[in-house]
Each structure stands twice: as C-alpha cells, then as structure tokens.
C-alpha cells in the first residue's frame, strides 16, 4: 500500500492538464495538493491502528493487504465495513471523503463485465481482472467519469444535434478506440491517478458507439480537466482548524479524440450492458451515500448541539425537537444502508451487490432531507454564520476586542470557542465546500427521480395489491 507522500509524488510527475484560475497547472500546484487532503487521509489512516480495521482488507485476487477503497466486496460484511468506513472517514474530514468514486465504479465494473461475458461470450471480465490486479498493487485512486454533458434532456444520445453531448467512440482501430465527449461534475478527477469512464444512462440498440466503458490515466493525451474549486474561507494561522483542510476540485473533463487501448476497454458496443453498468455504479454509490450522509449529518448535529449549548438553549423543547429530527434522518439512512448490506446478493462475478430497494430508499431519504439538515443548523445558529467577521477582524488591533466581545454568548465559555464554533457554521452554511456538498447531496449518484425509478422498477407493488385484495375478500383468477 502507498503512503500519502508516495501518492503525491506520483501526482507531481503527471502531465499538467488541469485548467484552474485561468492557468494550466500540474498536480504539484498547492491548490491541487490542498484539494487532495481527503484522499491523503485514506492513505494515512490505513496504517493507523484506530482505523486500519476499516481502511484495510485482503485482496480476493492477490491475497495481499489492500486499501478497502480498492476492494471488490465479497460478502455482506464487506458492504457493512465499507459503509462504516465511509461514515468514519466523513466524520474525520467533516464532509465528502471522495475516494468512494473509484470503489463504486470498480465494483460496478466487476459485476457487469462478467454479466456481459456470460451473455455475449466477450472476455471483458478477464481484462478487467488484470486491470484490477494493477490497480490494487499500485494502490491507485480513480475518479468516476459517468455524467455526460447530455445537451437537450428531451433527446436520446443519438438524437443530439452535437454527438459529443454524450461521450462516444469516433474511430475504431485494431488496437483500440478513439473517443470524444465530456464528463461533467468529476469529483476529485484532478488528483486521481485514473479515470473510470462509463455510460450515464440506458441506451437504445443502435447506440453502440455510446456503450463504451474503459479506464484511462487521468493525464492521457487529449484529456482536459477544467476545474472548479470548493475551498473553505481562509483563516489566519492562530485560528487554524481541521475543517478548512477539507477541499475539493470538481472537473469538467473533456475527451478530445482520446485513444483507449483494447486492454483497458471493458464494454464496447453492448448497449444493454451499458445501461446495466450505469445502474450498477449508481446502486453502489447510493449504498456509499448511506454511509457518507450519516457521517456528514453527525457533523451537522454535533455543531447544532454545540451552538445551542453555547447559546444556552440546548435544553429547550424546540431545540431538542430539532436534534431528534436530525438524528432520525441520519440513523434511518444508515439503517437502510445496513439493511441493504444484510439483504445483498452475490452476482455471477462473486461480487456482493447491495439490495436495490434499501440502498435507494436510504439515498432518497438522505437527498430529500439535505436542505432540511442545513435548515436545522441554520435555525439554531441564528444569523451569525452569514455575518461573522472573518479572522483578520478577529485579530485586528482596533476592532478585534469588539468581535471577541460580541460573539460571546455564555459567560463560562471562552470567547475563542464561540468564535470557532460560529466560524465552522459559517464555513458549512456559506462556504464553497458546504454549498458543493449540499448540491451533491441532492444530485450525486443521480437526481432524486432516479431513485424513484430504481425503487419503482424493482418493488413488488402487485404483490401489495394482492395483499389488499386478500384482506378485502376480492377473489379473481
Ligand atoms: C457536487 C457534485 C459532484 C458530482 N460528482 C460526480 C462524479 O464524480 N462523477 C459523475 O459522473 N457525476 C458526478 N455528479 C453528477 C451527478 O450524478 C449529476 O449531477 C446528476 O446525475 C444529475 O445530472 P445533471 O447534473 O446533468 O442534471 P440534469 O440531468 O440536467 O437534471 C436536472 C433536473 O432535470 C430532470 N431531468 C433531466 N432529464 C430529464 C428527462 N428526460 N425527463 C424528465 N426530467 C429530466 C432531473 O430529474 C433533474 O430534476 C456530481 C454532481 C454534483 C452536484
């Protein structure tokens, strides 16, 4: 397994293809290194005895120790440990741990490459297993490049005026394919080793060029990462804290005639399998959300309770009702994830697949309550998160004493603690990172309607109708 230093060294040697603040930058740029903080922790914590039970496991292919983020789940227990690991790691950073993108993509590929071979006699699974061995041995980090630009939402991929609205094959060669298009909203792509690219939706039979899945080094020729940062507001050093270390650079990742060699192609033209892969990745990702959303909710609840405590209102009925609301959302989502693991099934590849209904209702509940959780924190915090003077004023020789005096609520709590707690609330409620997390909480893993579709597509509503008929005494053939 790599150390975080080895991970950063590898990034530093990659071809600069990240466009941020009007410049083309390399992965040793301070902003990229800062953004990779959460990923660095996934390496550091693997050797920490307090975390290694969750962060490490044994590869089912090589028998060697690996990071759990690179594991292919073999049992319900693996799914549970992944979910617990995700919650713990999100607690540690106060937000998204990010590395689940690669884990969920690799698990999806594990299932669908095998299903495709069984149906069409292809050899994608063996290819993918070779890639997995390389991926695990080198302890790689991968981004999920699924969401296409999509153009006019009322039209299919093949109906778009511009075919590049969905990434597709533009040329077929004996040794591979050339692809063009763009994948949007790519979390952590600028500081990943590899991109795992696959379709975003169900495809029609004639849309073979869009049914393409592959792995590619993130700095391959023809790839442009157009970045958007989400950083917490800067603080002066005497008020530094762990939370602002968390950052993120999202990427609009453009593929301008990118060559993909055969050995890295895991689907090529099998349209029904393209749709299956889109859904399978989403299923794993929704299961991950059942770990990360409660992890973030822990932070939200903890901060809401702390502010209520400092304000002297922690025991008030209205505030306690807010806590109960927040706890119920977090723990119901977590419980749905556990149920999804317990009721999971084993695919022909041997990979453990979360239960569709439980993973989707968990993710759906989390998404529907996302703004409500922010509302709970906002309610109890009052208006100060929006108007809090920042650290230069806190430290200012003329006005600093005023800031410290007027942020104070309870006399027995040091003024700096009041300020720090409110700064965290301000970072979450008004900062770039908090806002990105909020939108991701609604749309990440698919917009809310996609969970409804997944639930309605697999739920036995007719079985429930039969039950109603039985109880009503309705007899039919
Ligand atoms: C912070 C963040 C991080 C993300 N990270 C990743 C990532 O790492 N990798 C990745 O691949 N993706 C990622 N996503 C993308 C995420 O999966 C998409 O945002 C989501 O699938 C919605 O797609 P969209 O943004 O194109 O919205 P749209 O598809 O435009 O959806 C907007 C609304 O229109 C509705 N709509 C769209 N089409 C139709 C239709 N035909 N009929 C009826 N209604 C329709 C949707 O239901 C939704 O309500 C991320 C998103 C966010 C916000």
Q: What features would you highlight for this structure?
A:
single chain; 477 residues; alpha+beta; Butyryl-CoA Dehydrogenase, subunit A, domain 3; 6-stranded mixed sheet; 4-stranded mixed sheet; 14 strands; 50% helix; 16% strand; binds flavin-adenine dinucleotide
Plain-language structure description:
- Strand 13 and strand 14 form a beta hairpin.
- This protein has a domain at 275-465: Butyryl-CoA Dehydrogenase, subunit A, domain 3 (Up-down Bundle), CATH 1.20.140.10.
- The longest helix is centred in the middle third of the chain and has 41 residues, at 271-311.
- Strands 2-1-10-11-7-6 form a 6-stranded mixed β-sheet.
- The chain has 18 helices and 14 strands.
- The mean pLDDT is 97.
- The protein has 477 residues and is an alpha+beta fold.
CATH topology of the domain at 275-465: Butyryl-CoA Dehydrogenase, subunit A, domain 3
Name of the CATH homologous superfamily of the domain at 275-465: Butyryl-CoA Dehydrogenase, subunit A, domain 3
Average pLDDT: 97
User: What's the total number of strands?
Assistant: 14
Strand content: 15-25%
Q: What is the molecular shape? A: globular
Rg to the nearest angstrom?
24 Å
The span between the termini is 62 Å
How would you sum up the major sheet? 6 strands, mixed
Q: What helical percentage do the residues reach?
A: 40-55%
Name the strands of the widest sheet in spatial order.
Answer: 2-1-10-11-7-6
Q: What compounds sit in this structure?
A: flavin-adenine dinucleotide
Q: How many DSSP H or I helices?
A: 18
In the CATH scheme, the class of the domain at 275-465 would be: Mainly Alpha
